[in-house]
Amino acid sequence: MSISKILPLFTLAVVVPVYAATIIANNAGALPGTAEDLTGLSPTEIVGTLPDTTDALLGVNMFKIDIANSEEFSAITIGSAFGIPDTELFLFDSSGLGVYMNDDIDGGNTLSCLPSVIANPCSSPRPVDIGPLGAGVYYLAITRSSNLPLSVSGDIFTIFNFTDVVGPDLTMGGNDPVTNWDGGAFTTPDTDLVNYDIVLTGTTPEPATWIMTGAACALLGILRSIKASQSRE
């Protein structure tokens, strides 16, 4: 195969875009071992439902995700039809250790937001030394307020103000991975409010990463084509 034929194929493969996805939650459990695996999917939005229950585990959805840019990572719950009015969001690392959490966005908004460093969608900034430290696999969890995660040592997070963005409490259970939830919840007569919608940033690779990935795939395909052509000669 000549260079004149290789270059057009290479160019086409490099510029083919890969789009992030809106994910509909499906059988997401409450702990890392039962979390819905979304790695490799680069979701920018997750929608789902949580039953109006005080059951510690049934009231939690957890997702295994890739964070591509830790400074750009954020997660915010937004309003939706029949939406849960008071959510909580949590991030855990690949070992199940707490990273950070938020209950209320601000005094007038009981939805939740995990802030980013760059282009932060939250009312509160990300505190220094709190949040994901680098790219990799993490676990994102959503529940109703105020169902909190537990480790074998106790509460992973301690909340003094519902609008705070807090990291793990190392004086309590924050040194150990999540193993359960405490089942706390505010009772509500609106049992039909079960939907949630989480918008994410920092979960999609940079454009340069897509280009390099496309280039690698293109070269692999070209080499295979050349090898097949040579074997026929």
Helical stretch tally: 2
Number of strands: 14
Instruction: State the secondary-structure class.
Output: alpha+beta
The helix content is 10-25%
Rg over C-alpha atoms, rounded to the nearest angstrom: 21 Å
Q: How is the largest sheet built, in terms of strand order?
A: 2-4-9-6-7-12
- What is the CATH first-level class name of the largest domain? Mainly Beta
Termini separation: 12 Å
Which CATH architecture of the largest domain is right? Sandwich
Characterize the overall form.
globular
The number of distinct structural domains comes to: 2
How would you spell out the order of helices and strands? HEEEEEEEEEEEEEEH
CATH topology of the largest domain: the name is Jelly Rolls
**What ranges have pLDDT less than 50 throughout 5 or more consecutive residues?**
6-19, 208-219
Biggest sheet record? 6 strands, mixed
How would you describe this protein?
By secondary structure, the protein is α+β, with helices and mostly antiparallel strands. The protein has two domains: 1-19 and 207-233; 21-203, Jelly Rolls. It contains two helices and 14 strands; from the N terminus they run αββββββββββββββα. Strands 2-4-9-6-7-12 form a six-stranded mixed β-sheet, with no helix packed on it. Strands 1-3-14-5-8 form a five-stranded mixed β-sheet, with no helix packed on it. Strand 6 (87-93) and strand 7 (98-102) form a beta hairpin.
